[in-house]
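cache lookup: miss for this entity combination. No prior model stored, computing from scratch. Input as submitted by user K.M.:
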Amino acid sequence: MNKLRDIWASLIGVLGEHPLLVRGFALFPVVMVSTSLKNAVAISLAFLIMTCIPVVVLSFFVEKIPGIFRTPVYVLFSIALYPFAAWCAGLFGTDMLASLGIYLPLICVNGILTDYAYKPDGSRKWWQTAFKVFCECFEFFVVICIISLVREALVYATVWGVPLPVRITVRSAGLPFAGLILLALLIGAFQYAKTMWQRLREKRAAKKGVK
Amino acid sequence: MDFLIYAILAVTMQNGMFTRLLGFGEAMELADTPKDIWPFCLTLTVQMVLSSMLSWGVLALLPAVNANVYIRPLVYILSMIVVYAAFLALGHFAKVQFIKRQNKQLLALSMFNCSVLGALLLTGTLKMSFLRSIGFGLGSAVGFLVAAFIVLEGKRRLVTSQTADSFKGLASMLLYAGIISMALCTLYGTSLPF
């Protein structure tokens, strides 16, 4: 029961400190690659492989690696997994590697990974680290999928390649600035929902206090 | 001439931060400590220029590796590590004060970020010549410096403005970057030159 409560508390903690929507980590794939839902799923899988595995494996030795060498070690481990990640991403289409371009190998220097490298938490158990980094990758997946869904519908009038009944297209939604503006709107909505949730909790707590 | 053209392209139309969002997170962090911008950008410039020279040399010597898109990024990372190690060795053995005094976390961040790797990957994908790749690397570093100052100024002004609570911080900064990116679109049209 206590373990379940720990997991729930850490899940809420990770959600509140969303690495992408709050701290602005790993923004480039969300803006540059999110022109189709297939791209989003493929890069999320590659992101999971190139971020989760190095963070979890190196969490066993992180204390033994001197601080100045941690970032290169994490980055090197991540890029070593690139061929496998690229192969996995390639399962979503023959031209997937071309459409993901330079953004696929760039995952090895994403902010989430480098943050684990220079701010390691030795007190955390391996499964807690694994759970946290998995949640962060899942959040990345959710954000990139939302942005991709909107952009694919606007640019190509399709979703996962399936044509929509309405054939109106907005080509400029495929440009980087559209991704930036959509992401900013999503962050605004997330912050609003977070504030509302906090107020609701405060109200409930106040009601309980009165009773 | 090629060197100059590619350097100018990297600062303006190909500015990594506003066209590809490379290094935006780093620039946001630097905006909180403006005194670190110059040392950060200086080490980033050294890293970009030296690692592009080194990786170009290695890939020219090993054509089989150059042709393999799965292995090429590893060469770039190894080049970056070699430059980083040389930089640390200079600080440790030659007692270069600039390196010794630098914040080690910031030093690692300036050496390993998507701005550096992004520029290297672009030079490799486009099979640039030696001079072009150095010009592009140098231009990307200067482009990062310019963009970091634009982000710093934007953050300074947006903090004091009456922005809606939900849009304070990262959201307003992304809108600001989006507007600059939109302005750059008028230079390159509907798709990036490369």
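stored under new cache key. The longest helix of chain B spans residues 130-160.
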